[in-house]
């Protein structure tokens, strides 16, 4: 039985990574006098990885990691004006308009009619709330969980709280690592909808031969898949 | 009837503002060549207020506001090494050990035996989770809500979710502005336990003559007060 559909938000319902890439390009240009682009990206990614346990996911931690990287790669010579520009680009990310991905509204609307639909997202609390409010999708969801990480335990708790348990739940998202694999471990269905841009720290290999794993090019096919699963045509 | 007790966390169950003050003192020392202390505090507070809508509450936003202030007051002349020190002091805040306030454990333990107890706190998601885990109090709570702001609507939703509604709930905390006044507006009891240090943006006047408002010097008196309220000795 399938009762509850969980949606990831960033790059599943609306654009996100593209804003990070634009900011990273701006960061690269700002730092051009101090560091070649490839080396800068590598050092930034190292800082993000190193800081993940302290900062968690989201724009504020990303901004702090950019500043740290700017100081590091310049040997402490980056001018304050450049740091000011980095701060400004971080604040702009926190104000960017929300652009829904194709089929996002129609798919959530269709599934909300027959299933419990829950938004499960990680990132900065306030920023994720802002994006949900601006998306206009807020009223469609029966529950919203903004979490610090996406683990099997988190999915078990979220689908118990808002649904009838993870084994009767399906999670859809663009990240195999965060949206699909831990949900399969929790006993639910995992549907991967790839997005052209994926952050390096979200890369993972797809599961092989898992009977509850599905993949689709965009969200438009999800209502049909859910209908089939709910009727037991596939398990 | 009183069924559910909500606890604020920072400076109600464990020390918090003292770490902000220590960091601010370090910031003042770092900036001594660029700005007199009083002016620096004023500008930092302005930055925090201005950025609250974008950054929300918590250490990451505080660190970003310190960096912004350092650039501003120095007219863009602050060296990158000082910014690096500010970053480091922010990271240290995210790693500081949790020190419980007097009577915190005993009070939560006593009330958890007879009531639903819920932790309701604002701040950075991951940081608040870390502090709760380190506090050793996590298992005592029936529910935990980490929220982006504390409003009457937030309290109505949290006490509906974890209890039997805000009118049968009591919120205890050190901030009149965040813990007490919005809970009274939501129809519940509000108990103020002042802490010696209160952030300027949390200052508020106490309510006058509100029958559901109580104040006490520390948490040790809370179980008796709750017992009286539950028995209807006071309303």
Please write the CATH class name of the largest domain in chain A. Alpha Beta
| Backbone shape of chain A | elongated
Which CATH architecture of the largest domain in chain A would you pick? 3-Layer(aba) Sandwich
Measured by DSSP, the beta-strand proportion of chain A falls in: 5-15%
Question: Quick recap of the structure?
Answer:
2 copies of one chain form a homodimer. Chain A has 235 residues and is α/β, with parallel strands linked by helices. Chain A is 48% helix and 12% strand.
Keywords:
elongated; homodimer; 6 strands; 6-stranded parallel sheet; 235 residues; DNA polymerase, domain 1
What's the layout of helices and strands?
Two copies of one chain form a homodimer.
Chain A: E1 4-7, H1 17-30, H2 37-55, H3 59-73, H4 80-93, H5 104-112, E2 116-122, H6 125-135, E3 143-147, H7 152-162, E4 169-173, H8 176-185, E5 189-192, E6 213-215, H9 222-230
Task: Tell me what you see in this structure.
2 copies of one chain form a homodimer. The first copy, chain A, has 235 residues and is an alpha/beta fold. Chain A has 2 domains: 4-15 and 99-230, 3-Layer(aba) Sandwich (Rossmann fold), CATH 3.40.50; 17-93, Putative phosphatase, domain 2 (DNA polymerase, domain 1, Orthogonal Bundle), CATH 1.10.150.240. Helices cover 48% and strands 12% of the residues of chain A. Chain A contains 9 helices and 6 strands; from the N terminus they run E-H-H-H-H-H-E-H-E-H-E-H-E-E-H. The first copy, chain A, has helices at residues 17-30, 37-55, 59-73, 80-93, 104-112, 125-135, 152-162, 176-185, 222-230; strands at 4-7, 116-122, 143-147, 169-173, 189-192, 213-215. Chain A has a 6-stranded parallel sheet with strand order 3-2-1-4-5-6, with helices on both faces. In chain A, helix 8 (176-185) links the parallel strand 4 (169-173) and strand 5. In chain A, helix 1 (17-30) packs antiparallel against helix 4 (80-93) and helix 3 runs antiparallel to helix 4. The longest helix of chain A has 19 residues, at 37-55. The mean pLDDT of chain A is 95.
């Amino acid at each position: 039985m399938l009762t509850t559909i969980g949606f990831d938000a960033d790059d599943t319902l609306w654009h996100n990574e593209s804003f990070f890439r634009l900011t990273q390009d701006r960061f690269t240009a700002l730092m051009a006098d101090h560091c070649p682009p490839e080396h800068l990206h590598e050092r930034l990614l190292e800082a993000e990885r190193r800081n993940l346990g302290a900062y968690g996911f989201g724009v504020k931690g990303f901004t702090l990691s950019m500043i740290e990287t700017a100081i590091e790669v310049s040997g402490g010579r980056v001018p304050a004006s450049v740091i000011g520009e980095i701060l400004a680009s971080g604040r702009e990310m926190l104000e960017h308009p929300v652009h829904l991905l194709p089929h996002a509204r129609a798919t959530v609307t269709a599934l909300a009619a027959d299933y419990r639909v829950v938004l499960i997202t990680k990132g900065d609390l306030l920023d994720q709330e802002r994006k949900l409010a601006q998306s206009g999708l807020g009223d469609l969801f029966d529950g919203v969980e903004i979490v610090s990480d996406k683990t099997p335990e988190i999915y078990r708790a979220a689908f118990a709280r808002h649904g009838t348990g993870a084994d009767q739940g399906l999670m859809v998202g663009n990240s195999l690592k965060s949206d699909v694999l831990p949900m399969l471990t929790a006993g639910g269905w995992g549907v991967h909808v790839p997005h052209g841009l994926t952050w390096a720290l979200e890369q993972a290999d797809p599961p092989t031969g898992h009977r509850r794993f599905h993949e689709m090019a965009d969200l438009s096919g999800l209502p049909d898949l859910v209908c089939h699963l709910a009727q037991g045509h596939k398990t």
